[in-house]
């Protein structure tokens, strides 16, 4: 069964949840069969899935950096023999372990490069440990594994008739210190690693062993920058990062075709979520009570359409992006009009320093909770039955080291919604390593540390049948 390697972002639990949301849709039906804090191994039910489909999935995912096709797997015991913690006292074991890996890589060479004679090759080696704070990564995989893999391809390709075989050279200082980051996604384009004789080889560790694959697509950081930093209207202090905007859209778990799905962001701000929904082909609608943000959001959407080479009439954008208060947004749309609602209401001042507890409680009670209550009431009327609401709510840290959150579950269920467990732990095999003992069956939401003053809390709710 063909498998794929997904390289995850920093918040691996959120990335796993987002990826698994797609694996429960009709187009990408599948399962995460193994994982670490850095990678996920995916097996799709449809073994004939096209490369174009994988590329489209990469565009949609906010928490994934790279996707590779898996070619082989080496069990952990063999990896530990080939690259033991104590090299000097385990030399007898090393030969057997490395001979096995040698043979594995020899088979891989001919799968990756059917034609070798007189060709010039460039190889970039990326080793992903279970976790970057794993001492085994710094002391063994970086210092010994990296050299071994580079030397193997350099030597073996030449033995088989390659004109030239060179590899990406990491800074020696980083190798010696063991604090090496694998190559970044933009290197995939910079070094043309998509070309037949140029490749990034992935070596991804889990508690079961090492998965070996080749990168086939990466996040397009240039496009993401163009849609974020380069857009005409920017308010970075109060804007959801693009990766989280995409994550919220992913958690709506919409089936194809996306072109007939209507999405609403009732606190659209500068339009980040709507920009990426438009990129994915969805029908976009937004609202905000601040006129400046509505105008800015419209500008950003017209800019996005132009950037993508699409035509969207200015009049259409003006009709779909409205200046309105959350209390009256239902007067602008028919009941059960939307297939999904994704939003991050800001509703809080930007904190330069930690707020006082009493001050923060007053702000939340008087200024934040009422709009959230209306958000749930209005969303219940606007969403189609069996559709979803995905949102982010703040958790604030105060001067006296307390955390203040919002009663999101109480407000949502009071309006008629049902909580959805974001990370479906029943879809993941249990692991012996305590690092992966994430809460099984209790927590409905996930967190991301936003700034030193607040965290983002992600929620998903389902709008049930009447």
The CATH class of the largest domain: Alpha Beta
Helix content: 25-40%
Predict the CATH topology of the largest domain.
Rossmann fold
The helix tally amounts to 14
Mean pLDDT: 93
**Rough outline:** globular
Low-confidence stretches: none
Rg over CA atoms: 24 Å
Could you give a short account of the major beta sheet?
Answer: 9 strands, mixed
- What is the tally of beta strands? 17
Structural class: alpha/beta
CATH superfamily of the largest domain, please?
A: Vaccinia Virus protein VP39
Instruction: Give the total of domains.
Output: 2
Strand content: 15-25%
Question: How would you describe the overall organization of this protein?
Answer:
The chain is of the alpha/beta class. It folds into two domains: 4-219, 2-Layer Sandwich (VC0802-like); 230-463, 3-Layer(aba) Sandwich (Rossmann fold), CATH 3.40.50.150. It is 36% helix and 24% strand. Strands 9, 10, 11, 12, 13, 14, 15, 16 and 17 form a nine-stranded mixed beta sheet that branches. The longest helix has 26 residues, at 357-382. It is globular, with a radius of gyration of 24 Å. It starts with a strand and ends with a strand. 40% of the residues are buried. The mean pLDDT is 93.
């Amino acid at each position: 069964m063909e498998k794929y390697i997904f390289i995850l972002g920093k918040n691996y639990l959120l990335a796993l949840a987002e990826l698994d949301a797609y694996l429960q849709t009709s187009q990408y039906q599948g399962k995460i069969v193994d994982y670490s804090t850095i990678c996920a191994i995916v097996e799709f039910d449809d073994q004939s899935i096209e490369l174009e489909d994988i590329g489209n999935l990469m565009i949609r995912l906010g928490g994934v950096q790279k996707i590779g096709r898996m070619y082989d797997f080496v069990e952990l015991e063999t990896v530990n023999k080939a690259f033991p913690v104590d090299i000097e006292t385990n030399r007898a074991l090393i030969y057997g372990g490395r001979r096995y890996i040698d043979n594995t890589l020899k088979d891989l060479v001919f799968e990756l490069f059917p034609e070798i004679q007189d060709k010039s090759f460039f190889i970039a080696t990326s080793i992903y440990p279970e976790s970057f704070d794993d001492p085994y990564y710094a002391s063994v995989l970086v210092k010994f594994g990296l050299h071994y893999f580079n030397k193997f391809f350099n030597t073996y390709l030449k033995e088989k008739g390659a004109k030239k075989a060179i590899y990406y050279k990491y800074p020696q200082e980083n190798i010696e210190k063991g604090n090496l980051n694998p190559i970044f996604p933009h290197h995939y384009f910079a070094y043309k690693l998509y070309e037949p004789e140029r490749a990034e080889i992935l070596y991804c560790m889990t508690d079961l062993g090492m998965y070996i694959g080749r990168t086939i697509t990466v996040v397009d950081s240039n496009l993401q920058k163009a849609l974020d930093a380069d857009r005409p209207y920017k308010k970075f202090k109060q804007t959801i990062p693009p990766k989280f905007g995409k994550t919220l859209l992913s958690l709506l778990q919409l089936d194809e075709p996306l072109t007939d799905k209507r999405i609403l962001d009732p606190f659209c701000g500068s339009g980040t979520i709507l920009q990426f929904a438009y990129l994915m082909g969805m029908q976009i609608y937004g609202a905000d009570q601040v006129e400046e943000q509505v105008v800015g959001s419209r500008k950003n959407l017209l800019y996005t359409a132009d950037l993508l080479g699409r035509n969207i009439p200015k009049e259409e954008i003006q009709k779909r992006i409205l200046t309105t208060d959350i209390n009256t947004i239902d007067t602008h749309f028919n009941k059960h009009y939307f297939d999904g609602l994704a939003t991050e209401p800001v509703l809080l001042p930007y904190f330069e320093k930690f707020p006082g507890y009493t001050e923060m409680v007053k702000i939340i009670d008087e200024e934040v909770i009422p709009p959230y209550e209306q958000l749930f009431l209005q969303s219940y009327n606007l969403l189609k039955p069996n559709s979803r609401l995905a949102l982010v709510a703040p958790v604030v840290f105060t001067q006296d080291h307390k955390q203040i959150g919002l009663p999101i579950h109480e407000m949502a269920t009071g309006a008629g919604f049902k909580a959805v467990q974001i990370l479906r732990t029943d879809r993941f095999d249990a692991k012996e390593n305590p690092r992966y003992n994430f809460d099984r069956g209790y927590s409905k939401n996930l967190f991301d540390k936003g700034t030193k003053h607040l965290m983002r809390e992600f929620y998903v709710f389902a709008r049930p049948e009447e």
